[in-house]
Fold this protein.
Amino acid sequence: MPERKRKRAPAGESEPRSRGFWSGTIAFGLVSVPVQLYPANRTSSISLRMVDEDGTPLQRRFYCTREDRPVSRDELVRGYEVEPDRYVVVTDEELRALAPEKSREIDLRRFVPLAQLDPFYFERAYYLVPEEGGSKAYRLLAAAMESSQRAGIATFVMRDREYLVAIISEGGMLRAETLRFPEELRSAKEVGLATPKSAPSRETQALVKAIDALGARTLNPDELSDLRSERLRELAERKRAAGEDVVRAPEETGEEQGAEIIDLMSVLRRSLGQKAKVQTAAPQRETSGAARRRSARTAGRAATRKKPGTRRASAAAKKRRPSGAKKRR
């Protein structure tokens, strides 16, 4: 199949963006704005992969400690812990029945002042990007919300889960902040923070002056850097250039894959045959003892046949026996 050529954007325009992972509609009265959802943050930290000494990537598997064997995904079920080591099994069908009704609408039913939104509730940020044909309504809603300094509160369904979200307008763009539910937050009393007493005014004023001396009008994002990731990246590049501790994962062969399957099957056979071995252990011991006795008798007969002097002595005794011995019997 011939490869499709990618269309280039005209000069002065940006490359076409990929589609968001969620699309729907912001609804407010008679206003309906089709939008797509894009994550506003991405993970930049370096993740380290677990490998063995030869560089082979390792995998995690489910393991049953009671039966001492690995467990396949087909054997897994979900359990809700009602008390220590006691669970209620919940099936996939039951979970699907509990899922909220699928909807592609963010219904703005309430607006609150931005000052009342504590960042403590913010969980994750997303960009709301207008779809084709919705740019005008998008600009109108963003301008009205930014002018009023209010945020819209709504719920919407994403990936079979209902989220509480705050829609915030800033710089003509709409941003969605998923909010934590109250039961997900800890209070100050739970961590041992009591109601603070008033601080002495003289010491407070001295600290205020020290803060003002280090004050800045704006936050410079360039000052925020992940030093650990930068140092880790430099370390890895330095060791790679020097050829130090560089390992390459060996190529998997069919024999190695087959050996792994045989090993797993042997583990399953040992687990399933453990009870049968216990029941047949005593008869096996008896059979072994009988075999040893038979071997001893056979060895004795063989040793007797190998001694010629014994045969000659027996023949001589018969010759010396009196002729009338048989009659006396």
